Structure formats: C-alpha cells, structure tokens
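Hey,
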Amino acid sequence: MLWAIGRSPRLRRETRALLADPGNEAFVSAISVWEASIKVASGKLTLSADLLETLEASRFEPLEVTHLHALQAGGLPPHHRDPFDRMLVAQARLEGLTLVTTDRKLAAYDVALLPA
C-alpha cells in the first residue's frame, strides 16, 4: 500500500501496472492502515501526507476486518508470527484476493501472492 501510493521505486513495475489497471480491483485492509499508524506513532515511519486522504483519493477500496477474518487468522498454522501479516493472509484467503508482498514466509500459506 505505502509503496503504491508513495510511488516508491521499490514496487515492481509489473505490480504497479496491475494495481493501476482499472480492470483489476485493488483493496487495502484496515490492518495495513492500523500497522502504518502504529509505525508513524512510534517514529518508525514518516508519511508526507494524511494517509486516509491519500487512500480515499486512490483507487484502492477499503477492506474491513470481520469476525470471520479474525477466526481464520487465529487458526492459521504458525508459519509466520506477525499478527498483521497473519490477518492479511486470512483476509486474502477468505475474500479470494491476491496478497502483494515481499515477505517470502507467506508462501507457506495457501494464499495467492504477487511479488511487490
């Protein structure tokens, strides 16, 4: 999310094109916004603009967290210890979405991945 809205050169050109394609739906989980806000509050991340305003102006659709997502995330095998990433895996699996990531550990889960 941050690489896409910030136009970071770290985001692969092919991935950026897929995210920008109006024929594809692109979602940002509330979990990603939560994680980013925690990093901003701790000083580990600086954003040049208001994150919510930037997201609302982007083509990303919000993906809310549901009780079913929480149950799925809690029941995942412990391949990955980061609770944010586990929730993203659960959401992607339940919603039939592809997760954009650089985290190779997530390949241990039965989830579609797209290299960031």
